[in-house]
Please model this.
Amino acid sequence: MRTNHEIDYRIYGEEMQYVEIELDPEETAIAESGAFMMMEDGIVMETIFGDGSRPRQGIFGKLVSAGKRLLTGESLFMTAFTNNVHGKRKVSFASPYPGKIIPLDLLRLGGKMICQKDSFLCSAKGVAVGIEFQRKLGTGLFGGEGFIMQKLEGDGLAFVHAGGHVTEKELQPGELLKVDTGCIVAFSQTVAYDIQFVGGIKNTIFGGEGLFFATLRGPGKVWIQTLPISRLAARILAYGTYNRKEEGSLLGGIGNLLDGDGR
Model:
């Protein structure tokens, strides 16, 4: 039995996806600021503090809840979209960069999921979006996500986004998976998360893959992305600052002129 709003959805697209959520009368979807794409007439949009999962909490509680979101790099505010008419209405939310949108049914996933800090896109009203502290010092210092990750709790549907292609794995009890720290999207609360030093002088100096693995030990489900946004941003930055003077051939010069680099 769900206590969160029960919504229907459909995901469109391949590389640049968006999720269309169908709302029954008085149903509400919650989304991150900037995720909104389009909605049908009859849906009312309202900016709220935090995630709206505890409507009866006082001002202090709302401030604390919203303040926690700052620690995960999110805005103090979220947006609620409510169907205020008779009949079904649809609202859509888009991912902010190329990749996939992942639906998470929290009722079937034990009521809690741990996610990377900026992965939450939208959810049914009632899903609590909070923070999860990593208790181990090594995990906090070298885990790529720091001491704080995002926590989704409730029994409704939530949607997170990830870069590139996403693979889902079911880890058996005791099964260990070593992952680049930036490639983790989400994992269930039963999965043990830790950090392991790569080791080896050559690996450390010349490996180019970082000094640490993230280790995920089952049982539970994990979602892994092929293109973390940090990796994509680093490549774009490197390309933008790259001096292509070595492309001294005629074709290289023509290419520079065509793409606006006339140096």
